[in-house]
Amino acid sequence: MTIPYGRQDISEADIQAVVDVLRSEFLTQGPAVPAFEKAIAGYCGAQYAVAVNSATSALHIACLALGVGASDWVWTSPITFVASANCARYCGARVDFVDIDPLTYDLSVERLAEKLAQAEQSGCLPKVVIPVHLCGQPCDMADIRALGQRYGFKIIEDASHAIGGKYRGEPIGNSRYSDVTVFSFHPVKIITTGEGGMALTNDSELAKRMVKLRSHGITRDAAEMLHAPDGPWYYQQLELGFNYRMTDFQAALGLSQLQRLDQLIATRHVLAGRYDKLLKDLPVTTPWQHADSYSAVHLYVIRLQLDGMKGSHREVFECMRTAGIGVNLHYIPVYRQPYYARFGFKSSDYPQAENYYAEAISLPMYSGLTEAQQDLVVAALRLATRA
Ligand SMILES: *Cc1c(COP(=O)(O)O)cnc(C)c1O
């Protein structure tokens, strides 16, 4: 059987929490969603949390709430899942990418500063920048915030990999350095609701807009209506929203998973530390850890030292898959996707992203990974890199 690169960790308590909702009055729009929102906001130290049906939806309504439209630019990292860029396209905005840092693999603050200075000259500064905490490793948020203040852009943290992590000793998601932070609860992420996501903010207006946008643009709050309600049945649709709601049984699962979040991440750190040791004498570069931060270790990405290695990146990857190790590659640079090719990106503008793509492999990393399985992964890699 294949060892996957990631998988969910479901306890009996999680199952019971979902069953309890299935036996209750509400499957959706009941008490579990607000309870989950409150718990996540409390855990992260953010004022408001808006639960939705995916991180993709959270990114979309965050962009809309920040006023992203067809005349705007949104910048993100090229080494991310396509959703980090697609959210801007949903709003009709143009997307551009900032090359990555060769050490952290996150968007490079130096490249961002350079690109902003150029964009200021040509009058096309971004409205929003979306840093992605790749693998759970936080971006340099204080520096990005300082640039945001100088150049007037808003910030959405794509923290899909990073719930439970810390930046400068504080929880990711407190949105101290951003306008909105987004989490994903897809099963391969740190905690899951099946499908699901959350948008956190400290701005009450943004929170209100996102709450409306996730449910058709409708309000039932008389204070927000354009005139007094016609009667007790009344609601008003104030703008064009969506059905991006999370169900109550999903929220119950998330709430139950949240109780184990710190423990799940501690286990990931033990596994990462063990990989670091076991891989010491292999021709690979192991992940770098910022001294000021605590990664959620969503992914464990190694880079092959191809100089002096017989096999190619692809051959090592295929060899691992053949050996039953479900390695993966996070990610194909987004500008390389056929959909994005139409915008005329040049690979040569992103040398670090290109180098990364030529060398990176995600090894299996999830809380249920056993030491024996880890040993199998390392043995397979030893063979694959020797071949
Ligand atoms: C998983 C992921 C998303 C999308 O999450 P969904 O909940 O599946 O919509 C967005 N950005 C990044 C970086 C991700 O890894």
Verbal overview:
- This protein is α/β, with parallel strands linked by helices.
- It folds into 2 domains: 12-258, 3-Layer(aba) Sandwich (Aspartate Aminotransferase, domain 2), CATH 3.40.640.10; 261-386, Aspartate Aminotransferase, domain 1, CATH 3.90.1150.10.
- The protein contains 13 helices and 15 strands.
- The chain has helices spanning 12-22, 32-44, 55-65, 83-90, 109-122, 141-151, 204-213, 248-258, 261-278, 313-322, 338-341, 351-359, 371-386, and strands spanning 48-52, 73-76, 94-97, 128-130, 154-158, 166-167, 170-171, 180-184, 197-201, 218-219, 236-237, 284-285, 293-294, 300-304, 360-363.
- It has a 7-stranded mixed β-sheet, sandwiched between helices. The protein has a 3-stranded antiparallel β-sheet with strand order 7-6-13, with no helix packed on it. Strands 12-14-15 form a 3-stranded antiparallel β-sheet.
- Helix 3 (55-65) crosses helix 4 and helix 5 runs parallel beside helix 6 (141-151).
- The protein is globular, with a radius of gyration of 22 Å.
- The chain starts with 11 loop residues before the first helix and ends with a helix.
- The mean pLDDT is 97.
- It binds pyridoxal-5'-phosphate.
- Pyridoxal-5'-phosphate (PLP) binds at residues 54-56, 80-81, 83-84, 132, 158, 160-161, 184, 186, 197.
List keywords for this structure.
Aspartate Aminotransferase, domain 2, seven-stranded mixed β-sheet, alpha/beta, Aspartate Aminotransferase, domain 1, 387 residues, three-stranded antiparallel β-sheet
**Rounded mean pLDDT score:** 97
Measured as a percent range, the helix fraction is: 25-40%
Name the CATH superfamily assignment of the largest domain: Type I PLP-dependent aspartate aminotransferase-like (Major domain)
Outline type: globular
Strand content: 5-15%
The CATH top-level class label of the largest domain: Alpha Beta
* Number of structurally distinct domains: 2
Number of helices: 13
* CATH architecture assignment of the largest domain: 3-Layer(aba) Sandwich
Bound molecules: pyridoxal-5'-phosphate
- Describe the main β-sheet briefly: 7 strands, mixed
Write down the Rg. 22 Å
Order of helices and strands: HHEHEHEHEHEEEEEHEEHHEEEHHHEH
Which runs of at least 5 residues are low in confidence (pLDDT < 50)?
none
Structural class: alpha/beta
Fold-level CATH name of the largest domain? Aspartate Aminotransferase, domain 2
> Could you tell me the number of beta strands?
15
